[in-house]
Amino acid sequence: MNNMAKRINMKQLLHDKEKAKGFFASKGYANVKRTYIDENGEQQEEIISIEIKPIGDHPLKKAFLEKNPMPKPPVIRELININTGETAYEAGVTIDAIKNDPNWQWKQIQDETDEKYQKELQEWQRKFLAIQMMIVFEVEDEFGIEKIDEFEQFLEDLGLSANQVQNIAEAIRDLDFLEGNKKNRK
Q1: DSSP string covering 32-70, please?
Q2: Which pLDDT does position 82 carry in this prediction?
Q3: Overall pTM > 0.85
Q4: Smallest Cα–Cα separation from 48: which of 36, 31, 64?
């Protein structure tokens, strides 16, 4: 990868519509390792490069998010230390011991540990990843929102592992990030 910054003049791009069209659109390849047994019974490895592009605000992604908003955790009432953010349980104190302390207040907080929420979130993330893969592989017309399960079966039939899909997803995210910014995302 070339780390030298390329300088451009935005005014020139404004006047050269042909050169400007899609100028910042990223494209690249995600490398996926494939291991197999050859006709001689020997284990072989090869690297498969799959063309990828950022998802952006693709209409299928928008439609999915409208139809399937990200689940929200339930809200619970919790006694919180407003200085530290700790719950009374985390701080190891009883309600009687802190009931007159102004540093402790009852707050509505999201319970991200709720099992039902965790299951819903995991299911939503699985479907959202499938939508993203449909867009990247340019097969959204063949599948779409209504056929997510069929698309996942297609990926399974291809033999793509969860690690391989995750590798592709990470490569897509990395297309538009500068090296220094990647560290801050994780």
Answers
A1: EEEEEE-TTS-EEEEEEEEEE---TT-HHHHHHHHHSPP
A2: 93
A3: no
A4: 31
